[in-house]
Design a protein that fits this description.
The complex is a heterodimer. Chain A is an alpha/beta fold. Chain A has helices spanning about 15-30, 60-70, 90-100, 115-120, 135-150, 170-180, 210-215, 235-245, 250-255, 275, 285-305, and strands at about 45-50, 75-80, 105-110, 125-130, 160, 185-190, 205, 220, 260. The longest helix of chain A has 20 residues, at about 285-305. Chain B has helices at about 5-25, 40-55, 110-120, 165, 175-180, and strands spanning about 1-5, 30-35, 60-65, 95-105, 125-135, 145-150, 160, 170-175. Classes of the chains: A alpha/beta, B alpha/beta.
């Protein structure tokens, strides 16, 4: 009973049984989080560093809470206030921190593949908290957990991922995770924001948001990642919102109960209108709540492999 | 595999344990029963059933507690345990708690169980009930208040309680070292 991997670099590397184990363990941690004392002593001999080379609110707080509720010692690192701004390399930064006897690294970086690179150079277990436009595995796991909680299962469900598929690491991790769990997935967005050959991952492509909504059980709506787009891919946010933004009137017109998800941060009025984001169909805050339990499960299962610890 | 106690002997012992609990707790007005996951809950199910049969007018609060996240052998190689369900929908603060597990061996599981229990509040009093007490093998100073049977076996032999609902029959068996390696 343990994971097949030493690091959590991406959902791509996980077996369906790994995903099932993480989700099952997360259920138990969710119960822990309902207790009067929301803390267990499991990782009290483990030190974890949160290496964040890119901004984050939810993921960072969620990881830190998960670590603290497992009784791990945590160290926070933000690139902007560190020696990285003095020109230190990634490997040097990591090796220096690890020489102070740190066991695990949670890492976010704007370069795709940065955690994979680091995994080849250091001994500690690495948890990818988002790397460039590649993967954001814990987000996909907590999305799958939240869908399972809401719908009973993910298998056989129809899931639409709507928005900036090209620049979203959440989209890629979700595609891997959902297809491994046996869901049907459609990605939907303007043609310029959908990568070529995405069908090879086992998903369908749609450019029509209304048809997509009429088809799906769950709509996972993604933010337009303007910070990663270095050329104009659509005319204006207003135009995007008119064609691909999800409003209450659009949802009403498909006459169907659809679960609305969003990994945050929401740009209200662009991809999602407030009347949808705050509606009972939206499980956006449940996703955030579940994030802590899912991350506790990931850290617990990775730390439990003794040979992982340096 | 050698049988130590049969179905009939087991049933007599369970009945005795239930009567002993009633002797000490009378109407169970401030007493709760908590079984330890994973295998203690088969025993606590039975004890709870016996008590409810003997005291049909009283609802005795009954919960299940998982101790996986409180174990002290978390980092031992190959020993990552699958967490089981914790089901405690009442407060233990100020209560008399009867903790139930099937086999008392090193005492470490009970130590973890006590830690886990205290995260749900501060009980007035905690008692331990076990079906099998493996004497002379304790690694921490923990003893049981209610004991079904005492068993003396050497360290690398394993004592296992089998239950009809899980293993197909009620029986207490001793497993020889060879078989453990196979498991």
């Amino acid at each position: 009973m343990s994971l097949s991997v030493k690091h959590l670099l991406g959902i791509k590397d996980l077996l369906p049984s790994d995903i099932a184990l993480i989700l099952k363990t997360a259920e138990k941690f969710k119960e822990v989080l309902q207790r009067p004392i929301k803390k267990v002593p499991t990782l009290r001999d483990t030190s974890i560093v949160n290496l964040f080379f890119e901004n984050s609110t939810r993921t960072r707080i969620s990881f830190e809470l998960a670590e603290k509720r497992l009784s791990a010692d945590t160290i926070n690192f933000a690139a902007s206030s560190s020696s990285v701004s003095k020109g230190e390399t990634l490997i040097d930064t990591a090796k220096n921190i690890l020489s102070m006897k740190v066991d695990m690294v949670v890492m976010r970086h704007s370069a795709s593949g940065a955690p994979h690179f680091l995994a080849n150079h250091i001994n500690a277990s690495i948890v990818n908290a988002g790397d460039g436009i590649n993967e954001h595995p814990t987000q996909a796991l907590l999305d799958a957990f939240s869908m399972t909680e809401k719908l009973g299962t993910v298998k056989g469900k129809k899931i639409a991922i709507i928005g900036d598929i090209m620049h979203s690491r959440v989209a890629l991790s979700n595609i891997y995770c959902l297809t491994k769990l046996g869901a049907e997935v459609i990605v939907c967005g303007p043609p310029t924001l959908i990568p070529k050959h995405i069908e090879s991952l086992g998903v369908k492509v749609s450019y029509d948001v209304k048809k997509t909504l009429a088809w799906c059980d769950v709509a996972n709506v993604l933010r337009i990642q303007l910070e990663r787009q270095n050329k104009p891919l659509f005319s204006s946010l207003r135009e995007y919102s008119m064609y691909y933004g999800i409003s209450k009137s659009l949802l009403d017109s498909v006459k169907k109960d659809i679960v609305i998800m969003h990994p945050g941060p929401i740009n209200r009025g662009v991809e999602l209108n407030s009347d949808v984001a705050d509606s009972p169909n939206a499980i956006i805050l449940d996703q955030v709540e579940n994030g802590v339990a899912v991350r506790m499960a990931v850290l617990y299962l990775l730390a439990g492999k003794k040979d992982n610890l340096i | 595999m050698k049988a130590l106690y049969s179905h009939q002997e087991l049933d007599i012992t369970l009945t005795r344990l239930a009567h002993q609990l009633i002797e000490n707790h009378l109407d169970f007005s401030n007493t709760v029963i908590i079984g330890l996951q994973p295998r203690g809950v088969f025993l606590s199910d039975r004890i709870h059933q016996k008590l409810q049969f003997l005291l049909p007018d009283i609802q005795i609060p009954y919960g299940k507690l998982d101790i996986t996240f409180y174990r002290d052998d978390f980092n031992s190689p190959g020993l990552l345990h699958q967490a089981q369900e914790t089901q405690l929908d009442f407060s233990v603060a100020g209560k008399n708690v009867i903790l139930i597990d099937d086999v008392l061996y090193t005492g470490r599981s009970i130590r973890a169980g006590l830690d886990a229990l205290l995260d749900f509040g501060r009980p007035q009093h905690i008692e331990l009930l076990v079906l099998i007490d493996r004497r002379f093998s304790r690694e921490v100073p923990i003893q049981s208040d209610y004991i079904g049977m005492s068993v003396d076996v050497i360290d690398n032999q394993k004592v296992r309680v089998l239950w009809q609902e899980n293993d197909g029959k009620d029986e207490v068996v001793m497993i020889a070292p060879k078989k453990i390696a196979h498991k």
